[in-house]
Design a protein that fits this description.
0% strand; mainly alpha; 157 residues; 48% helix
Length: 157
């Protein structure tokens, strides 16, 4: 829609006239050439730091090696991840069914199942933690009390 100018309006130059695209009704944005065209953020930051005389520190190369983690630890970790994810899903869905819909036929079993999975995950974690603690420490195997200090006195009093 073109608006006609009235007689008392002055003829002002159109600042967008230079950018009008004759083939379309829209404006064209001129391209500005830069000296580092196509460089990324890292390259820009690196060049600014070098210009200021600040030394850049390259991060060390770390190759993830699966053999660094014991297989029983990796298995226990992934089992716990899956169980906790399922527990969070079941608890959240069950509570939403109960609170928003009042649907006890779905909400109660989902909430109960989620609580059972939380208990299972806690039990599994504690079980693995106690097994790993007993293998990590040098506990006496001859039946002596493990809470005695190296001087033979009991810490409990």
């Amino acid at each position: 829609m073109v608006v006609d100018r009235s007689d008392h309006e002055s003829e002002e130059p159109d600042p967008e006239a230079d950018f009008q695209d004759p083939d379309s009704d829209s404006l064209t944005i001129p391209r500005v050439e830069t000296e580092d065209a196509g460089s990324g953020l890292r390259a820009d930051l690196r060049s600014e730091l070098e210009a200021e005389g600040i030394e850049t520190i390259e991060p060390p190369e770390v190759s993830p090696d699966i053999s660094d983690v014991p297989s029983d630890l990796a298995k226990a970790f992934w089992v716990l991840v899956l169980v906790v994810n399922a527990a969070v899903l079941m608890l959240s869905l069950g509570l939403m069914f109960l609170l928003f819909n009042g649907d006890t036929a779905r909400g109660v079993p989902l909430t109960g199942g989620g609580l059972l999975l939380v208990g299972f995950a806690w039990r599994r974690y504690r079980q693995f933690d106690s097994v790993s603690d007993s293998t990590d420490t040098d506990e006496p195997t001859d039946g002596t009390d493990s809470q005695q200090t190296e001087y033979g006195a009991d810490e409990r009093g």
